[in-house]
Amino acid sequence: MKLDTTKPVETREGRPARIVCKDDGTAWPIIAMIMNAGGTEWPHKHSADGACASRCTEQDLVNVPEKRTLDVWLNRYPQYICPFAYPSEADADRGAGPDRIDCVHTVREYVVGEGMK
After folding, report:
1. Count of domains for the chain
2. pTM of the model
3. CA of 59: how far to CAs of 9, 56, 90, in Å?
């Protein structure tokens, strides 16, 4: 996957990182400051796709997974929950059938692309 240097990055193992240079002019144009276990930042060189120059794959740069929140209302019926999600309770009420037994508010945080194949 291509590294997007305009978005937040971290190491493959999840350490905080910040890009301080993107055009070093060498085969390793990215210089990133990576937080070590002691809380100190150290510079590391990376290729344009995020691979670490030291060949330590745990130090490769990856984009921080983008998180979003799903906040919807669902109409529940005696035998099923309606597959249509509504942005508000009022919208769910307007879309409800006569045998609706409940309106369920659902909030869930998810990572963009999570579960996609």
Report:
1. 2
2. 0.65
3. 11, 6, 49
